[in-house]
Amino acid sequence: MEKHKHGERMKKERLARKIEFLENPHKRGDIPPDQLLSMIPVKQGNTFLDLGAGTGYLTIPAAKTSGGPVYALDVDPDMLEVIQSKAKKHNLMNVRTLNGRIDDIPLPGDSVDIAIASLVLHEIDPLSKSLQQIRQVLKPEGYFVCVELEKREEDNNHHPRIAAEDMEQEMVKEGFRVVKKLKPTDKVYILLAQK
């Protein structure tokens, strides 16, 4: 019994550390969600997909902005519970959580107006399959927003990064049309693309 309590306490502590890390503004690239969403042509009722949603850092503001369905995709069921709790707290009925991976998105084709991948694609290998999946679920002319930390010479293997030029090449190769490139800080880039 004592061993079980210790295991549960350790799990809660790990979850708390993960939440703290994911919601740290410095980890997020210092771009507040509302600022990021203002850079996207959001229409009332748009369907969003937050890829690698984590704690709902973008899911919750997107749900408030769009009013349409907002899908939060993550591989970690604990993160999805955090998102559901936040949605309930904010009285948001349009948030839907999806347990899954970016390279196998459990949504039908042509069902999403805007997909956002914020600080997650650098962790995916191979990138091409995930980009194909994102393109598949987007509606024609749908938007894909990629937010990543810029690769620098001093980066080591412990913190994988993808340079903006390389990410753009990968996106174009998979059929996206990059319509806007933004560099809100010297550390962060945003690529806005259409299907």
Helical/strand content category:
alpha/beta
The tally of structural domains comes to: 1
Q: Count the strands? A: 7
Helices and strands, in order, run as HHEHEHEEHEHEE
Helix content: 25-40%
Residue stretches low in confidence (pLDDT < 50, at least 5 long) are: none
Strand content: 15-25%
Care to describe what's here?
- The chain has a seven-stranded mixed β-sheet with strand order 3-2-1-4-5-7-6, with helices on both faces.
- It starts with a helix and ends with a strand.
- Helices cover 35% and strands 24% of the residues.
- The mean pLDDT is 87.
- Strand 4, helix 5 and strand 5 form a beta-alpha-beta unit.
- It has 195 residues and is α/β, with parallel strands linked by helices.
- It has one domain: Vaccinia Virus protein VP39 (Rossmann fold, 3-Layer(aba) Sandwich), CATH 3.40.50.
- The relative contact order is 0.14.
